Amino acid sequence: MSMHLPSPPPTIHESRLSLNRLLPRLRKSFPNDIESAEWAAFEDRLERHFPVLFDLLWRVYGPSYDFFFHVEQILRTCAEAWLARPGELKSLDATREGHATWYQSNQVVGAMAYVDLFAGDLEGLRDKVGYLKELGVTYLHLMPLFKSPAGDDDGGYAISSYREVDEALGSMDDLRQLSSELRHHGISLVLDFVFNHTSDEHEWAKRAQAGDEDYQAYYWMFPDRTEPDEYEKTLRPIFPDAHPGSFTYRTSLGKWVWTTFNNFQWDLNYRNPEVFNAMAGEMLYLANAGVEMLRMDAVPFLWKEKGTNCENLEEAHLLIQAFNSVARIAAPALVFKSEAIVAPDDIKKYVSEEECHLSYDPPLMVLLWNSLASRDCSMMLHALPKRFELPEGCSWVNYLRCHDDIGWGFEDRDLWELGINPHDHRWFLNRFFIGEHEASFSRGRLFQHNPQTGDARICGTTASLCGLEKARFEKDAHQEDFAIRRMLLLYGIIFTMGGIPLVYLGDEIGLQNDYSYENDIEKAGDERWLHRPPFDWEVAELRRDPETVEGRIFNGLLMLCRIRKNNQAFHATRTEFVDLGNRHVFGYFRVHEGQSILCLANFNDHPEEIPATRLRQLGLRKTFTDLVAGQPIVATEKLVMEPLQFMAIL
Ligand code: GLC
């Protein structure tokens, strides 16, 4: 294993010399391929991307005595993967390289689902492609579908093999077929790359448990509590309910193992360059199965350093960039999406063309829920203008919720600047979304409530958090109507704000909380199952009737999808926020290629007015159309917005 010492970065000249030294050795390992056009293409890629990869690896692993050995191993991994890459994917590489920022297009619409809950298995999913197309989906994120321990496996995030599909869902061949079929229908397959940890049943973990020291060095293991205690002085617990610290004692090993999440998820030790190489191999294997986009799971935790909180460290960024440059060499179509549920400023540090092209936008998500509860947009208007912009060539993935909880990840400074106490405000939101506040319409539940700090997060489906469950229970048609409006208001923003909109499948037909997890021994205690209901295909049939709740939500989303796809202004470039002088109404201009659209969202339960003078100040001078309602708007008159109305004004 290498020692980590700071070292000066190599020069281009040095990286060139290294490649010149490594290439002949590499060629010798592939005697049957080096005359082929494939190999020539590979060397061409190396020429272009090796200097970056070399620089990154040097900065992480540089001074170790066996550094060049490891670089050579990594290049072999790349060469093997490139040679094994199917022709269909190489064509995709060429297309994507010619259109590198395709994911910024307004044509892209995302959806996510668990394979079993949505369609039973991978074969069943192929039958549902028609439904996805009906909804306009072009990006499908399937939750982890690989082999994992029986029982609690953290919803699949404890992976026992990156090369074997969970038997209950199908096989690797099914996955390859599915990815290819999806591609032919214009849908990109997105899977997780769970690369911070493996399950304790992964082959590497099993070998480590059998006493193999080489594999023990794949993980973080300590003979006693001395070092874990040192580290824990500055770590924060992630799942305090289930697992208070970050280490687990394994009697079979007689050692403490680093387990940031659950005790069956062992953190990989990236100080060991072999781990990087092994995981690069797994990543390219997934890419060669047809995965077009990787959701880079739990990125902040990759690197550990005593005396820090072991989150967002510089080396974590360098490692992701190194994975990215491995992809440029051996699977160029592959795009990364970062999953960093950390402070807003830290989230953005993962987003660049060199690191992750895309990122979830948790700050936007929580600001939207905040405005829905408070009926007030001041926080959005204060925070977003300084936080929403991303580097060139990158894009947000905008969502209302995913399979995880909603944590109130505001930047505290933003709240203080508005005179709001962040601690008290978070508690207000928690109470609101579990239905304890008098003005609440929500039916959510607390997750990971820490009575000592008062911290907690929220679980619940979009429909239940927006008031549909309560309204139906109380048989209140007016509130039911408002719940639907709330959902379409939030989705209206998600579809137009700039970035890929991501629909949690089931939201489009208003699926409510599923309380059955309480009676399932493998799920009870993890409230996130509350918002992971099985997809109900019978209920989905109701979407065809526009009078039903399901029909209203589904058709509303369909309309938003069409508006997005038909207007280039919704390309993921500029978003200009506007202060409408009304704290209930949120507004922004989307501008691209000469088209400009003003989006307005009234978060209040009452009508709101925008004076004609304000419209004129915004440059609206004649007659416009609200694309959502299909209604004309005359800029010389005041604009009256209905309660919870979303408008896209062209
Ligand atoms: C990510 C996943 C979450 C999982 C964790 C550990 O945050 O979204 O569901 O528990 O990683 O893999």
UniProtKB/TrEMBL annotation:
The keyword Transmembrane does not apply. Residues 112-548 form the Glycosyl hydrolase family 13 catalytic domain. One of its GO terms (biological process) is carbohydrate metabolic process. Its EC number is 2.4.1.4, 3.2.1.1, 5.4.99.16. The keyword Cell inner membrane does not apply. Pfam families: Alpha-amylase, Cyc-maltodext_C. SMART domains: Aamy. GO terms for molecular function: alpha-amylase activity; amylosucrase activity; maltose alpha-D-glucosyltransferase activity. InterPro entries: Amylosucrase, Cyclo-malto-dextrinase_C, GH, GH13_cat_dom, Glyco_hydro_b, O16G_dom_2. Keywords: Glycosidase, Glycosyltransferase, Hydrolase, Isomerase, Transferase. Coiled coil: none annotated. Gene3D superfamilies: 1.10.1740.10, Glycosidases, Golgi alpha-mannosidase II, Oligo-1,6-glucosidase, Domain 2. PANTHER family: ALPHA AMYLASE CATALYTIC REGION, ALPHA-AMYLASE FAMILY MEMBER. This is Amylosucrase/maltose alpha-D-glucosyltransferase/alpha-amylase. It comes from Haloferula luteola.
